[in-house]
Specification:
Blueprint: E1 29-31, E2 35-37, H1 50-64, H2 86-89, H3 93-105
Antiparallel strand pairs: 1-2
Length: 106
């Protein structure tokens, strides 16, 4: 046990009480790896604003939309590995070019 880990008052950790592994009092909960906090001292989550909701939707659309067929799926696509949705990944090079021409013309 390091002495710096035992700080129930939170003086050394910016007001966040800390305990070493397996030394915490009952009724404490973890946050991330092994950080413990009291539930009554937790702050509420910031409310979702329309701007934050729109930004989140744009970010998810980029991860869920196939760049070839422009279909948006419910789940994130394997764009780093396949570069497209699963049906488009199985197309031949000629079929991909035809599909890209059709989606760009529309």
């Amino acid at each position: 046990m390091r002495a710096s880990d035992l700080d129930p008052s939170g003086e050394d950790h910016g007001g966040l009480p800390t305990w070493p592994w397996r030394y915490a009092d009952p009724g404490l909960h973890t946050r991330r790896i092994a950080y413990l906090y009291r539930i009554e001292g937790a702050r509420p989550v910031r409310p979702m604003t329309p701007g934050r909701a729109a930004a989140l939707d744009r970010a998810m659309a980029a991860r869920q939309t196939c760049p070839l067929c422009r279909v948006r799926y419910d789940a994130c696509l394997p764009l780093k590995t396949l570069g497209s949705c699963l049906p488009c990944a199985e197309l031949s090079d000629d079929e991909r070019e035809q599909l890209a021409a059709l989606t760009n013309a529309a």
